[in-house]
Specification:
447 residues; mainly alpha; two-stranded antiparallel ribbon; two-stranded antiparallel sheet; 13 helices
Length: 447
Amino acid sequence: MGVPGSFPGSPGKPQTPVMDREEVDRALSRLGDEYEAIETSLLALQDHAGRRLLEGAELTGVTKDRWAATEQSITVLWAHFDAYTAALTTARELRDRRRWPSPDDLAELTELLRGARVTVSGAATAGAAQLGGPARLSEQFTLEELVGRMNTLYAAALDVIVSADAVWSALPARIDLLAAELRRTLSLARSVGVRPGEHPAGDDLERITYELTQLRAQVVSDPLAFWAPDADRSAAPGGGRPDTVRYDRAARALEDARREIEAVLDVRQDAERRLMQLRDVLSRADRTLTEARQARGEVLAKIAASEVPAVSGPPTALHEQLTTAAEYRRHAQWHRLSPLLDSLEQRAEDELHRARESLTAVTAPLAVRAELRGRLDAYKAKAARHGLAEDPLLTERYDVARRMLWSAPCDLRAAEHAVLRYQQAVAEALLPPGPDPGPADGPQGEA
């Protein structure tokens, strides 16, 4: 809208000399330009998208109160414009009567154009209340003062409309995008079993869902509650920005929850791998214990006079806890599964180590027998290389040891003693012959 100039006069007759014809024509031209600018601005205000939204919305709070006052101000603004139009029309008609206006015409035109001759009466004066002044039955204005009043009313109305429209243009769309991200996060949360009351992230998502629902409803019904005006109050209408504090807080909370759920997803994938490894370790422990039990039976049948340790049964408690871990996995109880897996992994490794030690202890007599057999055959081969294969003593002792080692049950102590006797015989047979003692070596007789 046009910006009015100052008027030095006061209500009543003008204190300046009567304008001449050229001054009147210039004033009418300027006021006509201002009229067109004001009319264009008012029509633009009438068609503003923000105004249509405000008129059709179910408003609450600050916006409801300010829009009610703004609607009244717009009504007052149009009443002022009508008064301005009528006064300008009257002045133009008076000027158009004669090409060369008379002194009386010029005096009247001066009064119309510069004097406080424009009367705004009735409900239209309620606009004074919006400007901080008292409401009156009627007010007198110069055309310049009327333009100033309209400029003030227009700026206040435009500020409300532009501010509300800016919030509506910015925040609901951003909230909708965040809500779409929330839906994706909720879907991911359900897939990994993160639910309210069972996991903190599930509770966070429930709070965020409520907050976004409330935030959007409040933004739509009370946009001016989410408008942060510029500190400089003299700025143009709509100076400021949407207040996104609550939105930003919800966005950060959603990002934190999403990261927590991704961590749960990593835990789930890691848990599946760890469960497979646990089953493998326990399966190897079971197989080792089964092998130990079979070996114990073989040892008892083949080895005599030997103490064979008993073999324990499968780790039933560990298998039961592994089943419990699988249940935790099935019901996505990750906060219980992780510590249980930590415990089971160490115990399963201990069980496998115990099973291997049991197999080693059970098969020790068979290992001793195998070692004795190998030693016996090694010494026989050694004797043969030195041409002692047909030695009667060696053959006899070899046969005795072999019968003991290849008979069942085998007496390991006796067999070991027989092998040692054979070893000693081979060792003695391989000794070099000693010197032959002659007569000179015998005792000397007396002379």
